[in-house]
């Protein structure tokens, strides 16, 4: 097991104080073998003040965000579709600042939205701040959540993520934990995409009295991620379309009871490869989303 701590220097704390007025924060990081990374945030400001001051874009970052919205968002999209588009864009175009983490050289930009929009590397504060900046620009209610998270090695440390509102209902969303670390190009996770408190409470902790309740089931958003395959022919059709679209990854969504484990999906991939005379990726990532399982084949 690899474990490393990072503490912000006094100079960085002074910069944060100057930027955020009353905010005085200290950060430390842990990584586990599954790639989950958490950040400790201690502060002496009110949550309301943090929400107002934590997201601040310079001109370059604002220009980058404007272009992202222009290229990825349309007026015909629903709020949920806009949220998914930003979620996917950030994960596909930003990597957790893993190299600087292990070298103990995390730069200031990785702590904020500039790291995401311009440098394409960030830590959890950067992911959460960038997502909130995008939601603010789209007039979608969004909050930063300051709490902690417990990784697969049972290490609990502070963490920052988001809550977002759709049609007067609040949902949890954690882009950091949906982005593999080290970076896996083309892979987007949805384990923490528009989920209820019950999912987050499995490994996240926060002052629940200080935040909205998120208790709506997330199954209704599965269609945003992709079509649900209920039999072998539908699985092959899904893989065929991804191949025709020259996809980097090949997600297949099935009702969770359909397979005993991930090995049961391979025969359908092999059948399609034989039918078309092609070779699809062999490696598969598995995650649960509500009552569904997402299998993603990737190189």
Describe the model:
The protein has twelve helices and eleven strands. With 299 residues, the chain is α+β, with helices and mostly antiparallel strands. The protein has a four-stranded antiparallel sheet with strand order 7-6-5-8. A three-stranded antiparallel sheet has the order 9-11-10. The protein has a two-stranded antiparallel sheet with strand order 1-2. A hairpin with a 5-residue loop joins β5 (142-150) and β6. The longest helix is centred in the first third of the chain and has 15 residues, at 79-93.
Could you say which overall geometry the principal axes of the C-alpha atoms support?
globular
| Gyration radius from CA atoms, angstroms | 20 Å
Structural class: alpha+beta
Uncertain regions spanning at least 5 consecutive residues: 1-45
How many DSSP H or I helices? 12
């Amino acid at each position: 097991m690899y474990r490393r701590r990072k503490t912000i220097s006094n100079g960085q704390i002074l910069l944060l104080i100057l930027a955020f007025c009353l905010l005085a924060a200290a950060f430390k990081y842990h990584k586990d073998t599954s790639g989950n990374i958490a950040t400790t945030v201690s502060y002496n400001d009110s949550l309301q003040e943090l929400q107002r001051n934590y997201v601040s874009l310079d001109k370059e970052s604002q220009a980058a965000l404007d272009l992202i919205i222009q290229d990825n968002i349309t007026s015909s999209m629903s709020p949920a579709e806009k949220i998914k588009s930003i979620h996917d864009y950030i994960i596909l175009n930003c990597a957790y600042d893993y190299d600087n983490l292990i070298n103990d050289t995390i730069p200031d930009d990785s702590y904020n939205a500039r790291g995401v929009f311009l440098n394409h590397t960030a830590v959890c504060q950067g992911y959460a701040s960038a997502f909130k900046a995008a939601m603010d620009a789209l007039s979608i209610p969004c909050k930063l959540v300051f709490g902690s998270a417990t990784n697969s090695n049972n290490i609990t440390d502070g963490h920052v993520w988001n809550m977002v509102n759709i049609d007067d209902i609040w949902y949890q969303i954690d882009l950091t934990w949906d982005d593999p670390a080290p970076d896996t190009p083309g892979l987007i996770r949805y384990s923490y995409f528009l989920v209820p408190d019950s999912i987050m409470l499995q490994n996240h902790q926060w002052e629940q009295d200080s935040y909205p309740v998120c208790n709506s089931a997330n199954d209704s958003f599965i269609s945003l991620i992709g079509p649900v395959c209920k039999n072998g022919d539908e699985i092959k059709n899904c893989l065929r379309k991804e191949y025709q679209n020259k996809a980097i990854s090949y997600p297949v969504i099935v009702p969770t009871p359909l397979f005993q484990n991930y090995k049961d999906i391979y025969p359908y991939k092999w059948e399609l490869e034989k039918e078309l005379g092609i070779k699809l990726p062999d490696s598969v990532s598995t995650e649960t989303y509500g009552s569904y399982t997402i299998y993603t084949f990737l190189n």
